[in-house]
Amino acid sequence: MVTLVVTVGCGSMDLYSQKLAEKLDVPKVYTDIYHSSAAKFNISWLSRGALKAIPEDWSFVKKINKLTGIVHLPNQHLGRYGNFLKIPYIITVHDLIRYFDLKGYGTYIHRPNLRDKFYLSLDYKGIKKAARIIAVSQATKNDLMHYLGIPDEQISVVYLGVDHTTFRPSSQASEFEHPYILFVGAEHPRKNLPTLLRAFKELKEQPQFKDLKLVKVGKAGGREADFRRQTIEVIDSLNLDGRVIFTEVVSKENLRAYYSNAKCLVLPSLYEGFGFPPLEAMACGCPVITSNSSSLPEVVGEAAIKVPPHDVWGLTTALERVLTDKELRKSLITKGMEQAAKFSWDQAAEKTLEVYKEVEGSFS
């Protein structure tokens, strides 16, 4: 028997566990431990939050150790608890973003402090101890094999889903007066928003795009750094003040309308473990331009324009084509809706259940 840990929260990894909980008829344990720990990035060892976390962590470990059978930890940052579990566990790894920051391979979100380094090291040690790992893309599986040395046969790829009841073409009119391109996500370095801003600046040099806006949806990021200030500095340096609209977090219904009315979605990320926005946009009939890095090519297939993440000129050209070529737009919309239809939470749950049965069989 496998018990699914469901994390309470509104992030993409929380959504994953919650969608599986809806679809899987298995025992479940609900917890806010991930939400609590994620809010503590970049705090000091001696802070009140750090001291409070220790009994919270041990309470969660004790709770899980009272279970029988196998437990499914739904994201890599619960790997830290796996080190102290007496029962076998499956763990889902969405990405190795924090691992790259930990090892200094680049700054994808934020360089970890001493406390973060300790906990992140526990995460990746815990991943290695799992009875089975579920990777949300082939790209993430490849990273697990390459960077953590985990054998191929220990990793199962199960793609995430799209909520097609929410994300579908909307007839709701745009709340924006001008045509716009859309960016959905945080402002972490890995999201590569400055490259989009530079391409947008190049585009705005052309008179035909003088009314075009860039709408940016989502929080700037966590409290580790002032990500919004960094974004504003780039906007100011490019003289784009008033041309970029920030909407913060919006309701699913409004997001659906944003996708449906946008000229296109652009996600030029350096790294995505999966990446929901391109598929959500496609499901709403919105053309997509994305980068050709990490998991994005396997997620979007041939249904999006893919550009090297640092290629400002290439991104500008792609934007110009999508904005002016009606036949290209029509093709991207048709292919996009077909591509998005391949990803569902029913399928994700079904494949996850297959993994459960395989792991249960190995312990029987």
List the SSEs and their pairings.
Blueprint: E1 2-7, H1 12-23, E2 28-31, H2 33-38, H3 48-65, E3 70-73, H4 79-82, E4 89-93, H5 97-103, H6 114-128, E5 132-135, H7 138-148, E6 155-157, E7 180-184, H8 193-204, E8 213-217, H9 227-237, E9 244-248, H10 252-261, E10 265-267, H11 276-283, E11 288-291, H12 296-300, E12 305-307, H13 312-324, H14 326-340, H15 345-363
- Give the H and E element order: EHEHHEHEHHEHEEHEHEHEHEHEHHH
Question: In CATH terms, what is the fold-level topology of the largest domain?
Answer: Rossmann fold
Largest sheet: 6 strands, parallel
- Report how far the terminal alpha carbons are from each other: 10 Å
Strand content: 5-15%
The number of distinct β-strands equals 12
| The CATH H-level homologous superfamily of the largest domain | Glycogen Phosphorylase B
Q: How are the strands of the biggest sheet laid out side by side?
A: 2-1-3-4-5-6
Averaged pLDDT: 95
Helix content: 40-55%
- Provide the number of structural domains: 2
What's the level 1 CATH class of the largest domain?
Alpha Beta
